[in-house]
Automatic annotation (TrEMBL):
Organism in which the protein naturally occurs: Deinococcus piscis
Domain of life: Bacteria
Name of the molecule in the record: Pyridoxamine 5'-phosphate oxidase
PANTHER family in the cross-refs: FAD-BINDING, PUTATIVE (AFU_ORTHOLOGUE AFUA_6G07600)-RELATED
Domain Pyridoxamine 5'-phosphate oxidase N-terminal residue range list: 39-157
One family name in Pfam for this protein: PNPOx_N
Family matches, as InterPro entries: Pyridox_Oxase_FMN-dep (IPR024029), Pyridox_Oxase_N (IPR011576), Split_barrel_FMN-bd (IPR012349)
Transmembrane segments: none
Amino acid sequence: MTGVFTVMTRVIQTAAVLEELFGPVAAPSLQKEVATLHPVYQRWTAASPFAVLATSGPAGLDASPRGDPASLVHIQDERTLLLPERRGNNRTDSLRNILHCPQVGLLFFVPGVNETLRVAGRARILVGAELVQRFAVAGQPPKCVLEITVDTAFFQCGRAILRSGLWAGAERVDVPSAGEMLQAITAGQVNALQYDAELPQRQQSTLY
């Protein structure tokens, strides 16, 4: 495939060149990242029926879907999420990776909402009759439960969803808006109404 590239193509190999290519990070993009599952993020996560779980192991990286009627995860506290592991194809790729490397990433989706929520942390695989029974659906408990300790959490802007048209025509679930999340996380430094009013035009003008 290398033959399709011209002599003008180059590979970026340093963070400095990458930063020069993309420019500075806007303040809200830094402010929205916190070390716990902020209450406004808890409201958002509680409305999510679907997430992608990313893990890594000896065979490489893995990303696989997780879904349940909302709330997909149980919020134990601001640092702890419980994610039931339902029946599947029994490959257990994610679980095997966690045994090797506990670091995980989660990307939460809410139907009709352009923003997503990114959570990074460390996972343990828990079993126990009383624990799994808490997450039984239609009388079927999960095989085990992932206990995820949150290291960082922040919401991802909606440009990717807008570009894909993923939720075109879908009804939006009532969750905090981008501005409301930023206002809560920054203790009022960001004005929710102003941010949300300006966001659609800003996103449209910077989609590509």
